[in-house]
Design brief:
Blueprint: H1 7-35, H2 44-54, H3 61-71, H4 73-97, E1 99-108, H5 121-126, E2 129-142, H6 146-212, H7 218-253, H8 276-279, H9 286-306, E3 312-323, E4 332-339, H10 347-413, H11 419-453
Helix pairs in contact: 3-6, 4-6, 6-7, 6-9, 6-11, 9-10, 10-11
């Protein structure tokens, strides 16, 4: 006999059936979700961005420099300074060309009773309304070479600003090249340390096997492990330095960059010529040329200051279009004016002495800039020569260290040397590779240092 089910029992049964249905449909839903493409893949733009990240564009040193030129605020400011000198030139030419104006006057005054009509002298000046229209042309004839000095000074100032801008671009290139080679150097350094770490792991495995069979002491294994931890610390430090170098390059070029994007080229050729072949470039370096133009600008400042001692001769022509009263028939007049300076309380002499002092300082600055350029070339030349020889010697040292490590491993396999000898050979190889890597990229950086010292880039 079946016992009737109570209400709580029915509710429990219905709940179990619902859960069974839900769990039976869950695998199909999960499988359908797995087949459904992600939301980001449905957008062509996002897909193209992902493919762009996978295919990184190669960047040479020249490419990085072009990006830095577009991004640099310093170069943009220099460009604005060069454009601003055009205003100085226009202001200087205005002193030669003169002025032309159209003037309209309308005067109202108190009515005064006079006996004369409006065409008389008294009637004209007492008229309640007076109007006139005229063209006023003012032309300076002689200002004591003031205008000539101002024009020549503006021209040399523009050349000076251009030289300063070009030099700023060259120094920017030097910063870019330094950051470019730092990224490559530290990336290679990380790879070298990682390779040495792998060799240490290999040695550790061999030592553990030998220790198991009693052919190696436990102290040898501990010593090797200690040295491997030191290598790991160097690897962590190298990765940190690489990240900093990458951030500096990104700051200069204004866009993210990965080390594997950078494409290096061989730039070092045969042995450089004698030092004298490079020193001649000091005179033509943009910053030295800018100081030479500054001397010309300062001298034209002396010419402008001395012009205050000369008479000032000018001509003013008025062409009247409308005049009231008795002056109506007079439709033009000329004013020839000569102003002879006699005494201004020492103001003119003070300006002349100040201008001559600026000229002398400009000459001294030019001399210093030229000597500094020659010193830069000498230092850069010697550093490049030394780094070439150092890089060549270290490459040979790496070959010798690799051969020594190979021989030590073979001797260790035949029990001719102990583990300390093998580890010492491995550490020597590690040190030689890192020093050779640093010398290689330092040689390239010294090459561009010499180029920039001579006033050249790519």
């Amino acid at each position: 006999m079946n016992t009737p089910m109570t209400k709580p029992g029915k509710a429990l049964l219905y709940g179990l059936i619902t859960l069974a249905v839900m769990f039976s449909a869950l695998p199909g839903q999960v499988l359908a979700m797995a087949r459904k493409p992600p939301l980001e893949n449905s957008s062509p733009e996002v897909a193209s961005k992902k493919s762009g990240r996978e295919q990184l564009i190669s960047l040479t040193l020249e490419d990085c420099f072009k990006l830095a030129l577009k991004r640099s605020e310093t170069i943009a400011i220099r460009n604005e300074i060069v454009d601003a000198t055009q205003a100085d030139f226009l202001a200087a030419t205005a002193q030669v060309i003169g002025d032309a104006d159209f003037v309209m006057n309308y005067r109202r005054q108190k009515v005064v009773k006079s006996g004369g009509d409006g065409s008389s002298v008294g009637g004209t000046f007492n008229a309640p309304n007076r109007r006139d229209r005229e063209f006023v042309i003012s032309q300076p004839l002689f200002q004591g070479f003031k205008a000539l000095g101002a024009i020549k000074g503006a021209g040399s100032l523009k050349k000076q600003r251009i030289g300063e801008r070009v030099r700023a671009e060259q120094l920017l290139f030097l910063d870019v090249s330094r950051a470019f080679y730092d990224v490559l150097r530290y990336q290679k350094d990380v790879e070298i340390i990682q390779g040495i770490h792998d060799l240490f792991n290999e040695r550790m495995g061999d030592l553990w096997e030998r220790e198991k069979i009693g052919r190696s002491r436990h102290s040898e294994t501990v010593s090797a492990e200690s040295r491997m931890r030191v290598i790991e610390s160097e690897l962590a430090q190298a990765k940190g330095i690489l990240a900093v170098a990458k951030h500096i390059l990104e700051f200069l070029i204004g866009s993210p960059v990965e080390p594997n994007q950078l494409k290096d080229i061989e730039i070092i050729g045969n042995r450089p010529e004698a030092l004298d072949a490079y020193l001649g470039a000091a005179e033509k370096r943009p910053d030295v040329e800018a100081f030479r133009q500054a001397v010309k600008t300062a001298w034209n400042g002396v010419v402008v200051a001395q012009s205050s001692l000369w008479p000032d001769i000018s001509l003013v022509n008025n062409q009247y279009q409308k005049r009231d009263g008795f002056q109506d028939p007079i439709d033009w007049d000329l004013l020839f004016k000569i102003n002879v300076p006699l005494f201004k309380g020492g103001e003119t002499l003070g300006k002349i002495k100040g201008a001559r002092s600026n000229w002398k300082k400009a000459k001294l600055s030019y001399s210093l800039a030229k000597r500094q350029a020659e010193l830069d070339i000498k230092e850069s030349f010697q550093n490049w020569m030394a780094s070439k020889d150092q890089s060549k010697a270290l490459k040979e040292a790496v070959k010798s260290s690799e051969e020594n490590f190979t021989l030590q491993k073979e001797d260790y396999a035949h029990n001719l040397v102990n583990n300390l000898d093998v580890l010492s050979a491995l550490e020597s190889l590690h040190q030689a590779r890192r020093e050779a890597n640093q010398a290689h990229y330092q040689m390239k950086q010294n090459y561009w240092n010499l180029k920039v010292a001579m006033g050249e880039t790519l």
